[in-house]
Amino acid sequence: MSRLDDLYRRVPALLMARRNLSRNKIRSGLAVLGIIIGVLAIASLGMFGTTLRTGASQQLGEIGNEITISPNFQEGIEELSERDVAEIRRVVVDSEVVAVRTDTGLVTRGQRQTVVTIYGMENPGALYEAQDGRVPDRLRQGVLVGSGTAEILDAEPGNTISIDGRTYRISAVLAEEQGISLVNPNNAVVVPVEDVNGTGYNQVIVSSESGQAANESAIAIRESLNEREERVNVFELQAITQGINQFFGILNTFLIGIGSISLVVAGVSILNVMLMSTIERRQEIGVLRAVGVQRGDVIRMILAEAGLLGVAGGVIGAILALGAGIALNSFVLDDPLATFQVVNFLYILLAVGFGIGTSVLSGLYPAWKAANERPVEALRK
Amino acid sequence: MSHIIELQHVWKRYDTGGEIVEALRDVDFHADPGEFVTVMGPSGSGKSTMLNVLGLLDTPTEGTVLLDGQDVTDLSDAEMTTQRKQFIGFIFQSFHLIPTLSALENVEVPTLFGDDPTARERATTLLERVGLGDRLHYRPDQLSGGQKQRVAVARALVNEPRILLADEPTGNLDRKTGRSVLDLFDEIRREDDVAVIAVTHDPQITEYADRTIELVDGRIQ
């Protein structure tokens, strides 16, 4: 006896259910299709959300590791002093501190000219990487040109440009900043800090090795600089990334909600199919009851039918969803393997569970109705 | 000798929208093991109602049903189902086989829900006995009317009942096939000591019966 026969022997409701479903293959097939679509919708919308989130966090890069300190204008503080910067350097954890003095100015090279943001920094190497040339640890002379500015000026390392009348030699063209940054270098130039007018700093960037270090640094800075008065605003980009993560969480729930609607529709179609098929089989069920099959067994049999539809739809839907996820990820993220994340399998599991649950739930009413019909009525011709 | 089934003063009334129909009026009836009883009567005489009450498919409005000496009138649905499974085999005019199951599986149906390791063996033996040993795995649509009714007889016998209830068992069969099914009934009641109660229009059946009861307007004549 095969294993399947053995299973049928132990769970006779399954055998009956399996045979009953094969009676009208098109109808069963359509019911399964409904569940497939529902499961596919939930699972692939869930995975779609994951892909969005992964894509977004790639865009955001490591900004979670940065904090920005700016003077608190509301308290009448317009810039950060050398003492503030020194204090920040003293308290931060595992971080590099870059003090920035900002201005705007006109940059010219030959006939070309453009208005840019000018950042005065002593140690831009902590924030930027070169696309061409070299970013020195200590910027004492020369200028670093953002990629956008370099393009407008058609400039490369070694060229000279003039900024507000002062001439500089370009040390490096900076790599394009893809993500979000509070001191975006793309349309800016970076010059030695003493070349920018003023004595204080407009902001201080703290670049940490980890999100946790950034967080600890932020706390330490608040404690030491804002002890007596609110001298500075400390802005953690982590707050943004958390917000964004939260947003994607909401988006995912929303998407899955939409998917669930299709599963509800599928449930209604199963309800319809099961109701039709139990009405058609009234007499048969009456015979079953007459020959000694209990009500509970009739209910089990019909629930098994609904459950089988759900399992079939769920499994096929899960496989298709996995395929859809692979296609989506290779298209959007260029990385099909990004599909194989724990969270995606949870979505698939959730979708399959929902699918089977919906099916069984939809089978309840027909099962109850069939089991409670009096055999005498059912057997009447 | 004790009766295997007995109806005492059984009344059955239906309320059909204001009008009360009396399907059975003070029916007293009994059958003994090994006895072949036919119930005859015009349609609407209450034959089917009587068979349903005898088969524990319906409960009387008044009166008592005794099965093997026990009062089974007021049992719950689950208890009645258990009693049916244990005591009663049903045979219907239109066979009522399950079209998706093979002959063998159809015979097994009454044993299916419940742990019954020898069921397949018994079903096979029964099908061989009714002359369908070579048709075990045929589906009902591959069998003739007489063969279907034989499968139904085997199904009715699979739980080794004490009573066989047949509702127009030859109604859908030609005369010759009907006769062969009746021969089978005769053999069963003699060999297995089963009481056979058949409701019918068919005068042919009365030739086989020990007793024939006439039912008119719910009353035994």
UniProtKB/TrEMBL annotation, chain A:
The identity of this protein, by name, is FtsX-like permease family protein
Tell me where the transmembrane regions lie: 28-49, 247-275, 308-333, 345-365
Record membrane topology? Multi-pass membrane protein
Q: Which GO terms describe its cellular component?
A: plasma membrane
The segment(s) forming the MacB-like periplasmic core domain are 28-221
Locate the coiled-coil region(s) and give their ranges.
none
Ordered alphabetically, the record's keywords are:
Cell membrane, Membrane, Transmembrane, Transmembrane helix
Q: Name one Pfam family in it.
A: FtsX
| Record carries keyword Ubl conjugation | no
Residue limits of the ABC3 transporter permease C-terminal domain?
258-373
Q: Which InterPro entries match?
A: ABC3_permease_C, MacB_PCD, Macrolide_Exporter_MacB
Q: Which family does it belong to?
A: Belongs to the ABC-4 integral membrane protein family.
Localization annotation: Cell membrane
Example of a GO MF term:
transmembrane transporter activity
From TrEMBL, chain B:
Quote the Pfam families the UniProt record gives.
ABC_tran
Keyword entries, A-Z: ATP-binding, Nucleotide-binding, Transport
Spell out the PROSITE patterns in the cross-references.
Answer: ABC_TRANSPORTER_1, ABC_TRANSPORTER_2
Keyword Cell inner membrane: yes or no?
A: no
Q: Name one GO molecular function term.
A: transmembrane transporter activity
Report the residue ranges that make up the ABC transporter domain in this protein: 5-221
Q: Does the keyword ATP-binding apply?
A: yes
Cellular component GO terms, alphabetical: membrane protein complex; plasma membrane
Q: Which SUPFAM superfamilies match?
A: P-loop containing nucleoside triphosphate hydrolases
Going by the entry's taxonomy, the superkingdom of the source organism is recorded as Archaea
PANTHER family, alphabetically?
ABC TRANSPORTER ABCH.1 (PTHR24220:SF86), IMPORT ATP-BINDING PROTEIN (PTHR24220)
| Protein name, entry field | ATP-binding cassette domain-containing protein
